[in-house]
Amino acid sequence: MSGDRTRTREAGTDDVTEFDVDLSADETDSAPAADADSDGLRERVGGRAKQLFSPRAFLVALLLSVVGLVVTSTLIPLLPGAGLPGVFLAAFLFGLASERRRYLETAVAGGAAVGASALLDFAVVAALGGIGVPLAAVAGGVGAVVGAVGNYFGRDLRDGLTRDI
User: Fold this and answer.
1) Does 103 have pLDDT greater than 50?
2) In this prediction, what percent of the chain has a pLDDT beyond 90?
3) Which residue, 157, 144, 154, is CA-closest to 62?
4) Packing angle between helix 55-75 and helix 132-162, nearest 10 degrees?
5) What is the DSSP string of 103-121?
6) What angle do CA 80, 136, 86 make, to 5 degrees?
7) Mean per-residue pLDDT, 17-26
8) Worst-scoring range by mean pLDDT, 37-46, 127-136, 143-152?
9) Quick check: 138 pLDDT over 80?
10) What are the tens digits of pLDDT across the range 40-88?
11) Where does the chain have alpha helices with state H?
12) Residue 58 CB partners (closer than 8 Å, separation 6+)
């Protein structure tokens, strides 16, 4: 069955089948119709992109990740990778507080924070040894995984706390 609204003729009337179509536009108005279609497509694509990746949520996750990384790195200064528990805790709190799934934002924020931190921590070694890019890539990958896992556990706890028994 089609989704068109139709009304069939009744016996004894001259009423013709009626469709829900706007035929009032002239051929000269076809350009605005094309713009309206492209605007509708842009709105749909923009809406879908905002559902997949929210810049505002990313900035909040990045700020939390950087704060968590700095705090735990300050508390445990000599241990390499000491900022990872801070990134995990920041992503956990972000997942606990957010209503929607934001795995991509927390993964990118955690990866960026840990990758930049590793590059800055080992700046001399990275510059002289030429291992800066691989070091930042590995640290960023680890930070992305830690951020996504932290967000997952935060969302899981939120789901458990808000679910009806």
Assistant:
1) yes
2) 34
3) 144
4) 110
5) HHHHHHHHHHHHHHHHHHH
6) 45
7) 45
8) 37-46
9) yes
10) 777 777 677 667 788 888 999 999 999 999 999 888 877 777 889 999 9
11) 30-52, 55-75, 84-97, 103-121, 123-129, 132-162
12) 105, 108, 109
Rounded Cα gap, residues 89 and 160, in angstroms: 18
pLDDT of residue 9: 53
Cβ burial, residue 65 (10 Å; 0-12/13-18/19+): buried
Cβ atoms of 78 and 137 closer than 8 Å: no
Q: Which two tokens stand for residue 29?
A: 């108005």
Q: Are 106 and 95 in contact (CB under 8 A)?
A: yes
26 to 21, 23, 29, 32, 91: CA distances (angstroms): 14, 8, 5, 11, 55
